[in-house]
Design goal:
The chain has 223 residues and is an alpha/beta fold. It is 40% helix and 22% strand.
Length: 223
């Protein structure tokens, strides 16, 4: 089931959207301020975000650049073309103006989720010299095959799909469970250590960076 985070302080609109999403088979999560949304994203990873702009605390415009690797549809009363252009350039995937029809909202959600899936099906992921084949589940570094376990592959795929994002341990365990059943909180550190060693053995580059007390990310300084 796809999870969609609704970030809107208008309880009536949020309830209406949540009801529509639930009837369509989505799981809806809620945040009522930009700060609350940021806290949610620190330990959860929804498939899509519906983001209002006029929020208490951290505004939608301030929150948007902090969201990495997740499609964001801005839902706002601002209708000026310049506002839409600025938000799209800032990282929004789409923009819908309030008031809107639920049919249009659902159509835009479907398109974004389809795009997000298409980017990870039948293609390659690359980072620096690493090339990950999503079809054959194989990994190469500068053409040299790197043999990974199922869990190591799942961890690397997640990191390469979110190259600029710190992935918390809880989010990583949740996301890689789709690909591997044998990783637990106690064994995660061992799997990552083995993965780092295998990747480093080819070109002596430390591709995975540990962010103390938070989680892991790809080391962008080497790319």
């Amino acid at each position: 089931m796809k999870t969609i985070l609704i970030v809107d302080d208008d309880i009536y609109i949020g309830d209406m959207i949540e009801d529509v999403l639930s009837r369509e088979g989505y799981h809806a999560a809620r945040a009522y301020s930009g700060t609350e949304a940021l806290m949610y994203l620190s330990s959860n990873r929804p498939d899509l975000i519906l983001l209002d702009l006029m929020l208490p605390g951290l505004s939608g415009e301030e929150l948007l650049p902090l969201i990495k690797g997740i499609p964001v549809i801005v839902v706002s009363a601002k209708a000026e073309v310049s506002d839409k252009v600025d938000l799209l350039l800032a990282g929004a995937s789409d923009y819908i103006t309030k008031p809107f029809s639920t049919e249009e909202l659902l159509a835009r959600i479907t398109v974004q989720l389809r795009k997000n899936t298409a980017q990870s099906d039948g293609n390659f992921l690359t980072f620096d010299s690493i090339r990950l084949d999503l079809n054959t589940r194989s990994v190469e570094i500068s053409g040299v095959p790197v043999h990974l376990t199922q869990t190591e592959y799942a961890i690397l795929k997640l990191l390469m799909q979110n190259p600029s994002q710190v992935i918390t341990k809880s989010v990583m365990l949740d996301r890689i469970s789709e690909d591997t059943p044998d990783c637990t909180e106690s064994s995660l550190k061992v799997h990552i250590s083995n993965l780092r060693r295998k990747l480093k053995s080819v070109e002596n580059k430390d591709y995975i960076e540990a962010v103390w007390g938070i989680g892991f990310k790809l080391n962008e300084e080497i790319s």
